[in-house]
Amino acid sequence: MTHLKPVNRKAARVERATAQDVVALQRTGLPQLPHFPIGCSLVFSPGWEADRAGGTAGLCQPVERDLFDCHIGCYWPAQVPDQLNHAPDWTSKCAAAQKDWRKIDLIFP
Amino acid sequence: MTAWAAREHHRFEAAGKPFVYLVPSAAIFELDEAADAILRALGERPRTREELAGGDDIDAALAELARVQAIGAVSAPPPQTPKIIPLAPFPLTTMVLNVTNQCNLSCEYCYEYGEDKIVDTEKGKQPKFMSEETARESVDFMLKESGTNTIAHVTFFGGETLLNFSVLRKTIAYARQRGEQLGKQVDFSLTTNGTLLKPDIIEFLAENDVGVTISIDGPKEVQDKFRVFHNGTGSYDVITPRIKELLKRHRSRPIGARVTLTSGKMDVKRIYQHLTEDIGFWEVGFAPVTTAPGRGHAISDSGYDEMLGQFRELADDFLAASVQNRHHGFSNVKETLEELHKGVSKAFPCGAGLGLLGVATDGDVALCHRFAGSDSHKLGTVRTGIDRDAQRAFLETHHIADKTDCRTCWARPLCSGGCYHEAHTRYGDTRRPNLHYCDWIRGWTDVCLEIYGALAVRNPAFLTQFDDEPAKEPVS
Known about the structure:
Number of strands of chain A: 1
Number of strands of chain B: 16
Mean pLDDT of chain A: 68
Shape of chain B: globular
Distance between the termini of chain B: 54 Å
Largest sheet of chain A: none
Mean pLDDT of chain B: 93
Strand content of chain B: 15-25%
Structural class of chain B: alpha/beta
Oligomer: heterodimer
Number of domains of chain B: 2
Structural class of chain A: mainly alpha
Helix content of chain B: 25-40%
Low-confidence stretches of chain A: 27-47
Low-confidence stretches of chain B: none
Strand order of the largest sheet of chain B: 12-11-10-9-8-7-13-14-15-16
CATH superfamily of the largest domain in chain B: Aldolase class I
């Protein structure tokens, strides 16, 4: 960092901890690629359907994430619009599915 | 286009440079011109990138500020602090042993005997003095509950602690022996009013490396206003020669004075100078009296302002001395600097009920020494152990996440709502944040941040002393 200088020990920890963004399924040491799971069962994806208590509150990834994972890389027919031709901006307001999934709106042909 | 908004922070300046204290992480960063300009602009209202004039510099500064969560996209909800309750069993660090609930002074403001007392120490169920057996059971309890810690702190308290010196002496011997068997070091300290510091007691305290804190309010006229014997005579003339004897003989540990500030004319600097220069204390810590509002000795709102002004002056002296690596004994600053240096962000205001417990004369375990003997703040007994359900219930209801009033306060990483006992005395409820001294806490935290920033610029080596010091709470 060049504009901020960590002064106390916590600031140094914050700097270290944010040195690289951590995203789900990230493999450290490799360049970060967009996340395209290759089918639900072929990739190690802990906490996919239910958390250890059987609910969805403590999932490693938000349930809304399924929407993307399923429609891109999986055989499961997720009902999403055609993002190549018809609705390219469908998810433009949804930077992080966990927070912004409500901003994904319905598409009418 | 993304609009940026400032997240919770407190900007301050020290040694001519801008700094930011981030909430709730408690991280402190020095800002350069670009970052400072952005933070100030966003502090007024959210703005888009276009509204923040400037070149590539601005983009880089924005990215860094966002990275440490000083700012965030206005559309994204601010991150919520999770409510995490520590896992039981949490190791016990400090046990405060109330070896007696009797006292040979009758200080009007005393939280144990005055108008605001919680426990009836005259006709109550507790014995007036802790028995040798209960003290031994307490030591066993402490060593067991300290878990994997290799050091256990035992603090003797009262009443007037030295009224039960015979039990204190035997307890130290027993704790040493048990500690050795279990491979644990036991550290001892006590608080006393100084009236009973006779030569043989001083000799014992020095030989046994017992940390000593003396409750004393200052020069004669200040000390004798409230700190009086039962017949009303002041205690100053009795204690000062004894304290000087103690300071002369007991050199192995720094000996501190603990001052209670009350209403009326306040002269923090003079008290400090008297206690350090005339009497010879190494450190002096000040605390406003704990009392229900409306009492004669209660500090008023303007009194808190006055206290802040005087603390600021003394803190400036501390800074001047520390820049030159000279010792200064204003311990309030030192304690806060240590917490700022570590970046402490508290879920609970203190370790009471967690790493610190108080034990009453009958062996009942309470939140802390100030609640010792109170049935409504009981967390078990030294014989049956910590009542984990009661402890859990306490922690569940006293977390900072439950203190709505504190939710927007930038000083909450350090204050976390303030003393439970103060809240109990003031509002009758330990869960309440101490709203009567918010301005004082924010003002004082700001003073300490300025000192911290100034030291970080002018003498950063001074701050390294806080790197490895284990957290130990002052008991008052």
